[in-house]
Amino acid sequence: MDVSLIPVTPGTRPTASDTAAAKITSDYTTFLRMLTTQLQNQDPLNPIESSDYAVQLATFSGVEQQTRTNQLLEALGGQFNIMGMSQLAGWVGQQARTDAPVAWAGTPVTLSPNPAAGADRATLVVKDSEGTVVSRQDIPPTTTPFDWTGTGIDGLPLSPGRYTLELESYRGEERLTTAPMEHYARIVEARGGPGGTRLLLDGGIEVQADRITALRAG
């Protein structure tokens, strides 16, 4: 069978399993022809053992069966992805908590700090898209959410853009940890793809669904 003859719905193309199935079918037909020719031309005084034929047939049939199993698993995986997207549809419009970059646009952003155990001081560190520190702000070493107003080191509002937020935890003068600061952002879209489901947040920030640690009403 010529792979190019596999029917294709407009806008789609054969999957890897479709191509593999076409190839295995073609190879199986060729194998049967060779086997028949071998039977017809074997030496009558020294015939090939029938058990050898059985082994060859069983081996090839096993490969064909595995290919069909792979096709079934691929189809099931597609169904699971659809189910996952249906469930995630309920997330759209809600506020998601994540450690992704913040899309600052002048509106206060709710941060959710998580300082290290034993910390008696915490500092919010803000970096721009080039990794330059543009703000350092001492905050209470608690897990109480608070609104970040986007001010720089000079006390002036930061320009709109993407910023990375980190939380430094201290005990006295000893820095215990530096970790991403989580914040809340509204989910505007859920997208599927080879790498899994991704969520589009306000400001164009994309994150993997498994990086969402909490949801709240938008």
Structure description:
α1 (16-40) runs antiparallel to α2 (50-88). With 218 residues, this protein is an alpha+beta fold. The strands form two sheets. Strands 1, 3, 6, 9, 10, 11 and 12 form a seven-stranded antiparallel beta sheet that branches. Strands 2, 4, 5, 7 and 8 form a five-stranded antiparallel beta sheet that branches. It is 29% helix and 30% strand. It has two domains: 3-90, no CATH class; 99-184, Immunoglobulin-like.
> How confident overall, as mean pLDDT?
79
The stretches of 5 or more residues where confidence is low (pLDDT under 50) are: 1-13, 76-80
The largest sheet is: 7 strands, antiparallel
Categorize the overall geometry: elongated
Relative strand content? 25-35%
Structural class of the secondary structure composition? alpha+beta
